[in-house]
Each structure stands twice: as C-alpha cells, then as structure tokens.
Specification:
With about 375 residues, the protein is of the alpha/beta class. The protein has 11 helices and 17 strands. InterPro entries: Ala_racemase (IPR000821), Ala_racemase_N (IPR001608), PLP-binding_barrel (IPR029066).
Length: about 375
C-alpha cells in the first residue's frame, strides 16, 4: 500500500528540541501547519502535545483548525486579500499585512464582528516577497496605528522564501532599529519582531540573532528537520517525521541503459544520468507512485544504495543495485521528502495519510504530561 506515515514521536522530539532553542533565546513561536493541509489526526496530536499557537496560509485549513481544536491561537500567514477579509477576521487572531487599504478593511470588519484584530506590519528586506519598503514605514504606521479595532503587535519580515536570500545579521539589526524608531516617534510599544523562521534557525543556534527578534514562525524544520542554509538536517532534529512508503508493483533484473535512440518526447522525468556500461544490468523496482501523486524529483530513497532512475505520471523506477535482498512485489520502498513533495502529497487525494502510533495510543502515552510546548503568543503581549 502507498501511504504517508507521520511519526508522532518523532514530531514531538522536534517540537521539544525547537522549543528548547526558543526558550534559550526567550522567544515566542508559532507552529506553521500549512503543510498538513488540515490533516485531522496530526492537528489533534499537536494539541495533545501542548501546541496552542498555529499559523496557516489557507482559510480552509483554519476552518479545519477551528472545528477540530477551537481553543488554538491562529495566525493567517498569507497576505490578506480583500475578497476574504470577513473570513480572515472570523478565523484568525493575527494576520501579516503590507497594504493600508487592506488593514482599513480588516478594521471595518472587526468592528462589525466586535473583535480586535491583531496585525504584524511586514517589511521588505531583500527577498522581494511581501512587505513595505522601509522608507515608507512611518507614513504607513501613521495610517494604521490608531484604528479602533486593529492592534499592531509589531513588525516582521520574510527572508529566504522566494529569492533564496540567505538571512544575515544586518537585516535583523535593521528591524530592531525600525521598531525603536516607531516606538520613539509614536510613544507606543511594539512587543513583537516576528522575523524568525526555519531558515533563521542556524543563526539562532550560532547565537548571532539579535535577542530583540522574539517571534518565530516555524514549519519545515519541525516536519522535515531541514537546515535551509547549509542543507541536510539541523543538529538534534529528526528527518523522519514524515516518510513516504511506495508499494512495489514490479521488480525485475533489467538493463540499466535504454535500448534504442532516446529523445525528449517522453512526458516523464529522468534522473541525472549515472555511469552505466551498455551491457550493465541490475534490479529495478517499479513503485506505484508517480507525478500525479507528488513531485517525484523531491522524493529520496531512505536506503542510500537505491537510486531513482525516473518517473512517469503513474510510477517511479528505482534502481536497487545487483541484489534486491529479498524485496518482492507488495513490499515497500521508503522515501524521505523535500518540502514541495510533502506539500503535494498532503494536499493530494491519492495517497493515504496515517499517524504512528495512532492518536488514541499517542494521547494515552502523554496523559501524565501537562507541559505546554508552544504557548499562545498573545499571552502577555496584547493590550
């Protein structure tokens, strides 16, 4: 059977480890769950683990969060769009913003819903994603900081998410100065600098991130253990929280080099060419996972002796080497995933998703543990 396995014990390990890093730098943090695509059992497991602050970029997922775990603090991480303002205010406690018109609309809807909606003002610092230009920050803040139903929690940024800009100390030092400038000019405290993310964790571990950066939004490193600066896995994290199991539909010894002239007419993908002689043979497993299921360039066999030869819409071909070591049809090949492949799998309908252990067993194992792993960010920082 093809299935995506979410190891709840490995997930708890990564939450514990990242939580200890946040404690050392006295920072608050929010678990970014958009990669889960509203997966019910994993969201419930996060609640059992003590997660009380969740961020997502899809309103459908936030609706799932409200239905499944209604006591969680929720952050809307995609820039609010005018056609969805009503639901954003209804579902999210906090949103990230860079347009005055949008914030005014959020204020009007918050009035009607009798709510205070909190915002982070996003600043562009080089990655060319969302954010106002620093030169317009004071004028921007003048327009929004006195709105009746909007509370500005602070400023923030995204780095490394679009153009691949590697975070540096100067960027964060700028944010600290911008907050000081706003607080001095407007005589109003801004409790948060929300600029931490998975790609910022290496700077944090090196002790180089300014301590004034006190809020992190972390997703990928929780679920994949990723070191997004140097590659590989961050020290102390597990990279097996989510594993793909693909069922073998065919296994045969074949030539490792195609016969006949090749061209680009195929709709499949071929992995980087390996050096095989024309007569070289080996065992090839056809796994029943293809491009309809995920981006197959983002799946990596966990056994480093195996190599992906290519894929089509329906199957992926794995070179097993000279000896299949007892593998037969019906057995599985296990794969690690990159973030894009995991997103594709979680949002798709073709692959079963399951947690191990099951939610009931996992919850029972934590019944005597009452520690809150990820406390609500708004506790102690809101008016």
């Amino acid at each position: 059977m093809n299935r995506l396995i979410i190891d709840l014990n490995a997930l708890r390990h990564n939450l514990d480890k990242i939580g200890s890093w946040m404690d050392k730098c006295n920072a608050k943090w929010t678990v970014v769950t958009k990669v889960l695509c509203g997966h019910v059992d994993t969201l419930k497991a996060l609640q059992v683990m003590g997660v009380r602050s969740i961020g997502d970029s899809r309103l459908m997922n936030l609706r799932a969060v409200e239905r499944i775990v209604p006591d969680l603090e929720s952050w809307y991480l995609r820039l609010p769009h005018l056609s969805a303002i009503e639901e954003i205010v209804s579902l999210a406690d906090v949103s990230l913003n860079s347009e005055i018109e949008t914030i005014i609309a959020l204020n009007e809807v918050a009035k009607r819903q009798d709510k205070i909606h909190r915002i982070i003002i996003m600043i562009e610092l080089g990655d060319l994603r969302e954010g106002i230009l620093p030169g317009g920050l004071i004028r921007f803040y003048e327009h929004v900081f006195n709105l009746s139903n909007i509370e500005v929690l602070g400023i923030g940024t995204n780095v490394g998410c679009l153009a691949g800009v590697v975070p540096n100390i100067d960027q964060f030092a700028q944010l600290v100065l911008y907050r000081e400038l706003l607080e001095l000019k407007f005589k109003h405290k801004l409790p948060l600098i929300s600029a931490g993310s998975s790609i910022v964790l290496p700077l944090t571990l090196e002790g180089r991130l300014p301590r004034a950066v006190n809020h992190f939004r972390i997703g990928e490193s929780i679920f994949l253990g990723s070191n997004l600066v140097d590659g590989g896995t961050l020290e102390g994290l597990r990279d097996d929280v989510v594993v793909l199991e693909g069922e073998i539909a065919e296994i045969k010894e074949k030539s490792l080099v195609p016969s006949g002239e090749t061209s680009s007419i195929t709709s499949g993908t071929t992995a980087a060419k390996e050096e095989y002689s024309p007569c070289q043979r080996g065992y090839r497993a056809l796994v029943a996972i293809g491009q309809l299921d995920t981006g197959t360039t983002g799946i990596i066999p966990m056994d480093d002796r195996y190599h992906i030869a290519g894929s089509s819409s329906d199957i992926t071909v794995v070179n097993l080497g000279d000896n299949p070591e007892g593998l037969t049809i019906g057995d599985s090949v296990r794969f690690k995933l990159n973030y894009a492949a995991l997103l594709h799998l979680m949002s798709g309908k073709y692959i079963n998703k399951e947690t191990r252990p099951g939610l009931v067993e996992f919850s029972a194992s934590l019944a005597s543990i009452n520690d809150t792993e990820v406390a609500p960010v708004l506790d102690g920082v809101t008016d």
